[in-house]
Amino acid sequence: MRNRGRAPDLVWDSRTVFWPLSYADSLPKDSNLWMLAEDVGLEIWGQFHRFRKNKDTARIEGCSPKLTETLLRAIPHSNGYEKSLVRALGDFGQMASRALVLDGELNYELCFGRRSDAKDAAPEDVMLSYIPKGSVCRIGKNWYQRVPAGKVKGDSESRLIPLEFGRIARFLPPTSLAESLTSIRTTLPLIGQSQKRWMEDSIERRSLEPFTDVRRSYDLAVARETRFVGWNGRGMFQQHSADYHFMVRQCRWYKFCIELRHSIVETLGRAFAVAGEACGERPRFVLQGLPTVSDVSSAEQKLKAGPTRFDVLFEPFGLGKD
Fold first, then answer.
1. Cβ atoms of residues 217 and 265 within 8 Å
2. Whole-angstrom Cα distance, residue 111 to residue 113?
3. Residues 264, 313: Cα–Cα separation, whole Å
């Protein structure tokens, strides 16, 4: 758990345990999947930072200044931006969206810190403690952290730690995106493995197929698999599509990133609502000025109506902003 700027004499009520990822588990499964995750993270980061000059872009309402500061500090990966909710959300949104693309979930435990002599009092501090990926499970109606043998020093056998579901912040893709992302995580590595074998065979002269044709077939396979999220493959597909279809795909991309951003902020807001309730307050996020799904729908309508300049069509998404 992060302890930067926290009182050293607090007792934390965390139940979960942490262990570092192995080197093999930390490696990306596929270069295209990794690039997709990085591009999603950068787009969501950019959506916050492009609009950071507007002081009302993001704020917390319904709670005291003290709790506001506490919650800002509790945002994981805020990189010291405790005074700027926009920057903190941008950095966390970047990290969380990458995890949702690569792993399909991101879990934290909501922890409270209290003085040792006032365990029944309202919390003095709040923290979101990272739960290692794949270790949260549900058995019947109950939730647990599954700790494999050997992951924690002194544990020779695997064990289950009971969890309080209301204290688990489960970041998941929206239902509308879950199936597409699951397919992408499964299919892109398979395409990559096939392409790797073809390249190895080409080097050893075992493949006589024209390089350009085969490369195009793999590019199109990636394009088809990512069509529902609108990823442009960092320009890889542009030469295979007309301008109109490129813009249609770009609209899908913005919608995908906006829906993912909204899901992340909504989940974080629910966790902070639980924290606020423990402190006798009702905090809530208020976001203004950020791109919305309605902006995407408007862009799609303009695109269908006739030729439109790229920068004009996508201006609501920060194109051309500093």
1. no
2. 7
3. 26
Q: What angle do CA 73, 74, 79 make, to 5 degrees?
A: 55
Instruction: List pLDDT tens digits, range 68-90.
Output: 999 999 999 876 555 688 889 99
User: Which residues lie closer than 8 Å to 299 by C-beta, 6 or more apart?
Assistant: 251, 254, 313, 314, 316
pLDDT 10s digits, 236-259:
887 777 888 889 999 999 999 999
DSSP tag of 15: -
CA dihedral sign, ordered 69, 73, 75, 77: positive
Q: How far apart are CA 285 and CA 257, in angstroms?
A: 19
Distance (Å, whole) CA 126 – CA 223:
43
The three-state secondary structure class of 161 is: strand
Q: pTM for this one? A: 0.90
Exposure of 194 in the CB half-sphere (CA atoms within 13 A): 12
Beta-ladder partners of 107: 131, 170
Q: Could you tell me how many residues make up the chain?
A: 322
Q: How far apart are CA 274 and CA 321, in angstroms?
A: 36
Tokens of 125: 């501090």
